[in-house]
Design brief:
The chain is of the alpha+beta class. Helix 5 (about 310-325) runs parallel beside helix 6. The longest helix has 16 residues, at about 425-440.
Length: about 675
């Protein structure tokens, strides 16, 4: 792997000699686009403000903590500070952008409270956002301690419109995003996206979440959004138990002048540490199919019986289809003991090395390997973490022994706490999730996690953590349905955190097996999702027979899942978006566009193509009479000769979309 790294690090120690210097410090981004001020008010309360050019991102916002050891939010003094500059360009082993520049200025402010407890606040200013975290140095007065409250705030300058999903509602991030002003919010998860009334777009989230509770956003009134840490459990309201030295996750605010700027902002990755695994050649992006959708549409079952889907003959059918069509893996769900009975929420004890009698794992593993395909394992836990951890090492050894290069994990439960009473998104679950990532790495296994803790950029440090769910995915289209505009919101919300295992590709839109039901989509839109929604492991979710002989399937077969660069051509949150991606270390481009219920005509300018070169653009689009309800399966395929001066005007039907394959001639 080629790697280009340029690092400039300047460190300046600042000794505070005057009251003014003690109470007010300034940090600017490299191009002075983002400006952060950090200081103390007259009562010794720490705060910060943030500007983007002349526009306010955060008014005076509180910093600090309430610990079991003392108050770290008032009566403080600044005892020192330092600044530094950092600039590097690094290469992702896989991703939506191969080469990423990490260029920022850093300010470390050292605080001390009345009892002599010290902590630092570290700010970094990028030209497209800012972030801060807390550091607790090792000190006699702060060895083992617990967090009662983190008071970090994001005080907005107005009652901005926003996009969010509710927190503490018990469904693991799986909600339709609400579009409402800040004043109407209660508790919401991050990623949290803001359409500011001053013309900017903000994205509030966190980076590098380790050994700490996840953050949700609490509306405390007057446009103040406060960090609210998920408690440990129903019986223990403590937010986190810590040991100094300790660094909290970064609190992040990404900023754009257009909504698409948020999609190509890689600040969260830059705030995570570089790859710790060394050789990650075992992590290979790709596409897969699976014994999965048929259970949702009533063709098969996870549990044993006459319709049990994970049987040897059925899985061979999927392996043959994958091999014939260039897919890398076959996901198999329902293969192991534990599915019989009320398994959700830990109702049964899953066994992760014991196949059902009709699933011959040895035969199937060899059958797949002989056809250049691998089986993707499945570890549904029913959110029973203790049961999973008691088998964790053996489970991943089982995957490795049978050539299963990837595993899909799951933590389904019906409330906001796990079976043992711990919160699904609290410190306990965060720590468990990290143990799974590290176990997977030891066994050279890629992880695609469902019902996960949210993505905070760990894929940079642990590249085997390839993808997650963490939002309403395709399966809901067989369980009541997602509104067609859902996928026009996801790129500007959930996908800002990282790869999303949405599982697109349904072709049987009218659901032959579910009379009176259908998916709110079109063929053109399903193809578009392979570039609009980013994931390095991308599923073709439908049954093999629904793809056989289908001309539109050629796009799914040809689209890659690893990219050289990504460009957002246009978009408006919740209405439409068009994204172009270049194949990694290649010359070909793939473009996807989706719309909400409104029909639209979009002009695609090909000015991102290399000058002086000729390309063939194959457009898979909605037909003139396509409609996501009345005629969802109609589509057209047309070829055009294009270059970097070309423009195509493309129609999207109501609820529709298009996909374009652009090949160098």
């Amino acid at each position: 792997m080629n790697r280009i790294v340029i690092v400039i690090l300047l460190l300046v120690e600042i000794s505070c000699s005057s009251q003014q210097e003690q109470d007010y410090l300034q940090l600017n981004s490299p191009s002075n686009t983002v400006n952060v001020s950090v200081g103390l008010d007259e009562k010794g309360n720490p705060y910060y403000t943030a500007q983007y050019g002349s526009k306010t991102v955060a008014d005076t916002s509180k910093l600090g903590f309430l610990l079991d050891k003392g108050d770290l939010q008032s009566g403080l003094k600044i005892i020192g500070s330092s600044t530094s500059t950092f600039d590097e360009t690094w290469e992702q082993p896989w991703g939506e952008e191969r080469m990423i520049r990490n260029n920022c200025q850093e300010l470390i402010v050292q605080f001390e409270n009345r009892e002599g407890i010290k902590y630092n606040v570290v700010f970094r200013a990028f030209d497209d956002g800012y972030a801060f975290r807390y550091e607790f140095p090792k000190q006699e007065k702060l060895l083992n301690f617990s967090v009662i409250d983190e008071v970090s705030e994001f005080k907005m300058s107005d009652d901005h419109p926003s996009w969010s999903i509710p927190a503490y509602h018990g469904n693991r991030y799986e909600y339709i995003y609400d579009h409402k002003p800040i004043s109407e919010l209660d508790m919401v998860h991050t990623p949290f996206t803001v359409e500011a009334t001053n013309g900017l777009f903000f994205h509030i989230h966190e980076a590098a979440l380790y050994d700490y509770s996840s953050m949700v956003i609490k509306n405390t009134g007057n446009n103040v959004l406060k960090c609210d840490l998920v408690p440990l459990s129903k019986s223990d309201p403590t937010k986190s138990y810590l040991t100094a030295p300790f660094k909290t996750p970064w609190r992040t605010v990404q900023i754009g002048e257009q909504p698409g700027d948020l999609i190509t902002n890689y600040m969260i990755l830059n705030l995570n540490e570089p790859n710790k695994l060394g050789d990650v050649s075992f992590v290979k992006p790709g596409k897969y199919i699976g014994v999965w959708w048929e259970m949702f549409i009533g063709v098969g079952t996870w549990h044993q019986g006459s319709k049990h889907a994970a049987n040897t003959a059925n899985v061979k059918k999927y392996i043959d289809f994958a091999s014939a069509n260039g897919f890398d893996g076959v996901l198999v769900e329902g293969w192991n003991y534990g599915w019989d009975g009320p398994w959700m929420g830990g109702g049964t004890k899953f066994e992760f090395t014991k196949p059902y009698p009709d699933f011959d794992v040895k035969e199937l593993s060899k059958y797949a390997a002989d056809r250049n395909v691998y089986i993707i394992g499945h570890h549904e836990t029913g959110a029973d973490i203790e049961n999973y951890e008691s088998q964790l090492e053996q489970s991943f050894q089982f995957l490795e022994d049978h050539g299963m290069k990837a595993v899909k994990t799951g933590y389904v439960e019906n409330g906001d706490t796990l079976p043992n009473g711990y919160y699904h998104h609290g410190q306990y679950f965060v720590q468990h999730f990290q143990r799974v990532i590290e176990t997977g790495a030891r066994h050279k296994t890629m992880i695609v996690a469902h019902e996960p803790i949210k993505d905070t950029g760990k894929r940079r440090t642990y590249p085997n953590m390839v993808s997650r769910e963490g939002a309403k995915g395709q399966e809901y289209n067989a369980m009541g349905g997602n509104p067609t505009e859902h996928v026009t919101v996801i790129p500007f919300t959930r996908n800002l955190a990282g790869p999303f295992d949405y599982t697109p590709g349904v072709f049987d839109i009218l659901l032959k097996t579910r009379e009176g039901e259908q998916v709110e989509t079109t063929i053109g839109k399903e193809l578009a999702l392979y570039t609009v929604i980013y994931a390095p492991m991308m599923m073709a979710n439908d049954l093999p027979e629904n793809y056989e002989g289908h001309p539109a399937f050629e796009y799914i077969k040809s689209v890659p899942t690893d990219w050289e660069q990504t460009k957002v051509l246009n978009g408006e949150i919740g209405k439409y978006v068009t994204i172009a991606r270049q194949e990694r270390q290649g010359s070909d481009w793939f473009i996807g566009g989706v719309t909400d219920k409104e029909a639209r005509t979009i002009d695609i300018k090909f000015d991102f193509l290399e000058a002086g070169k000729s390309y063939k653009a194959t457009v898979f689009s909605d037909a003139d009479d396509t409609h996501y309800i009345d005629n969802p399966t109609a589509y057209d395929i047309k070829d055009y000769d294009v270059n970097n001066e070309s423009t195509l005007s493309l129609k999207m039907a109501p609820g529709g979309g298009f996909a374009i394959r652009v090949l160098l001639q």
